[in-house]
Amino acid sequence: MSKVKIVGNASGSGTLTLTGPDTNSDRTITIPDETGTVALGVGIDDNADATAITIDSSENVGIGTGSPTSPLHILASSAGQTIAKFESNQAGSVKVAIDTDADRDSHLEFQEAGTTRWDLYSQGSSGGNELNIRNQSGTNIVQFTQAGLGLSQFTAKGWIQMSGTGTISITDSHNVSGINDDGTGNYTISWDVNLANGNYACIANCPPNNNEGAYGGVNARAVGTCAIDFRKATNDTSRDVDNISVIAFGD
What is the pLDDT along the chain (251 residues), one digit of tens a residue? Predict the structure, then answer.
C-alpha cells in the first residue's frame, strides 16, 4: 500500500494548516499519479461565480453558463456585453471583438488602436434580419437581405431577362417583383427592394437579329419601377420584342 507523506520546508518558518470543510459527508481527494506542483491563487480566482467556467460530462466548456450545449458555449450576462475579445498586446492594439447591442444586433468588429476599421454585423429586431459590412465611418459597404439580395455600389441593384412578345414572362431576374405590359413595345419593371432614389443608371436592350433591327431604352426611372420602350429601327414605330435584358446600378 502506498503512503502519503507531508514534508516541511527546511528553510521556512511558517505553519502549514490543512483545514477540513464543514461537512457531515465522507469526502475522498485523489491525488494524480504524477509529479507536479499545485499552485493556488494563480490563474484561477476562487472568488468567481460557480458558472464562470464549467466543463460537463461531455467535455463541453461553458463560460458564463453552467449548462453548455456545444464544445465551447459562451453566454453574455447582459445585452451589449462583449462576448469574446481577441486582442494583441503589441503597439496599435489590434482587436477582434464579438458582441451584441440592446437591439440584438450581433457584431464582429475589427479594431485598431480603439477604432473600428470594419464591422460585420447582423441586424436583429431593428433591421429586418440583414447582414451588413460597414467601414470605419459606419457606412454599409455590402448588405445582404434575408431574401438573399446582395446590395452594394459594385453589384447590380436589379436585373432581368424577359420575353416581351405574346404573354410577357420573366426568364430570370434579380430584385424584380414583377413586370407589366403597357402596350406595344412598352413595359414596366417593378423592383422588389426600392432603390434609394431615381438617379440610378439603367440600360435596356434586345438582340437585333430576330427583332427586325429593333432598338430600345429606358423611358422613366422611379425608386420602385423602371419603364422601357422598344421600336423598329426601320420606321421608328413601337414593336414588341423578345429576349429583353435590363440592368440597373445605383444607391
Answer: 888 888 888 888 888 888 888 889 998 888 878 887 766 554 455 566 666 788 888 999 988 888 888 888 888 776 666 667 776 666 556 566 666 665 556 767 676 766 667 677 676 655 556 677 777 776 776 777 766 666 666 778 899 999 999 999 999 998 999 999 999 999 999 999 898 899 999 999 988 776 778 888 999 999 999 999 999 888 888 999 999 999 999 88
Instruction: Calculate the CA dihedral of residues 116, 118, 122, 128 and round it to 10 degrees.
Output: 90
Residue with cell 460597414: 134
Q: Cα–Cα distance between 165 and 158 in angstroms, integer?
A: 22
The residue to which cell 413595359 is assigned: 187
Q: Do 186 and 175 contact (CB within 8 A), yes or no?
A: no
CA quadruple 213, 218, 220, 226: dihedral sign:
positive
| pTM for the model | 0.52
- Residue 247 neighbours by CB under 8 Å, 6+ apart: 156, 158, 159, 202, 203
Of 134, 172, 169, which Cα lies nearest the Cα of 156? 172
Q: Where are the domains of the chain?
A: 25-75, 82-151, 158-249
